[in-house]
Amino acid sequence: xxxxxxxxxxxxxxxxxxxxxxxxxxxxxxxxxxxxxxxxxxxxxxxxxxxxxxxxxxxxxxxxxxxxxxxxxxxxxxxxxxxxxxxxxxxxxxxxxxxxxxxxxxxxxxxxxxxxxxxxxxxxxxxxxxxxxxxxxxxxxxxxxxxxxxxxxxxxxxxxxxxxxxxxxxxxxxxxxxxxxxxxxxxxxxxxxxxxxxxxxxxxxxxxxxxxxxxxxxxxxxxxxxxxxxxxxxxxxxxxxxxxxxxxxxxxxxxxxxxxxxxxxx
Length: 266
Known about the structure:
This protein has two domains: 6-86, Arc Repressor Mutant, subunit A (Orthogonal Bundle); 89-256, GAF domain (Beta-Lactamase). It is elongated. The strands form two sheets. The protein has a six-stranded antiparallel β-sheet with strand order 6-5-4-9-8-7, sandwiched between helices. By secondary structure, it is of the alpha+beta class. The protein is 45% helix and 19% strand.
């Protein structure tokens, strides 16, 4: 059930070239061979050969034993930006949703936070083919505190912004299990931040389990939440596997949008 890592099937030299370029992109200063070896956990000998090839192609420039991006890299970057304009963000999100729907067999949603900051709206839905499934319509709104998608988005906020939200929200009991205590909500959001995924069971709707992770764009901003929603009875034994699936797919979509976590160029 876990999502396959497509990078594992790529030739190692190709992955190393990509990692070198990403490392140089992330550094404000030229990077030496020793530092690249440490950052990429790769031997200097294998990196040196790749660096020579990249320098010959003007993708990088060597200067006093260190390396920086070259003119060909910036030309490629410009071409990629133009290609990105032709391939809309919504297409990349939808493609990831289809992958997740195929792997999970459950309803997959994409939700964005509303302007008021207290609710989210479902803007994309791929329904499960199961006869018994979670169903929701595009345009439906839910409170942040009671949904996996909402908690995943809240987990991306700063502590100050989260405190502001908790001071404003007035949780209501939507089911017999809805968490309304603000301390408990803060703890659940902290867990979601630490694990990179939020899960709720029977919180917003009786008998429904939600699993969600935030999707980020190239700037690092959370643009929405990727969610799997399904009958709780069907997920009791596979909640951990589903959490991994959602987290991995949200990471894949975020990478396709240009997001790279700080300190991680791989």
